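Question: Send over one sample?
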Amino acid sequence: MNINTYFSNSHWLIFLCIAIFGASCNSKDQLPAPHIQAGTAKLSGKVTGFQLNRLEEAPTLMLYTANPVTAKTRVTKVNVSEDGQFSFEIPIECSISASALSSNFYENTLFIYFTDGNETSIELINDGKGGTE
């Protein structure tokens, strides 16, 4: 490979990196600026594709929410119903709250942002390969 071909390929690689970076910087996907404000958020959804009846204990989801004022973490637990439905109602101390969702039937942790007064709906799907979607 001669030096001109090397620099020509390098320019295309740099251009591609800049294009990908530029496309990922979408200002419409940003959350509003947070402020301290007590409120309530809701999380509901459905779990599908898991063998929930094979567990030794009831299938449980745990939501870990940090309090920005006291720096303590609140853990809210909810049992998943037989048809896979679940619902959380969580007190939040900030207009935007970041939480982590985990479970006793899958190993992944999901990070979810909540805003005061809004409901977030999700569906946890077992992909059959040990992962979730």
About this structure: The domain at 38-125 is CATH 2.60.40.1120 (Immunoglobulin-like). Residues 3-24 form the longest helix (22 residues). The first strand starts at residue 36 and ends at 48. The CA atoms of residues 70 and 93 lie 10 Å apart.
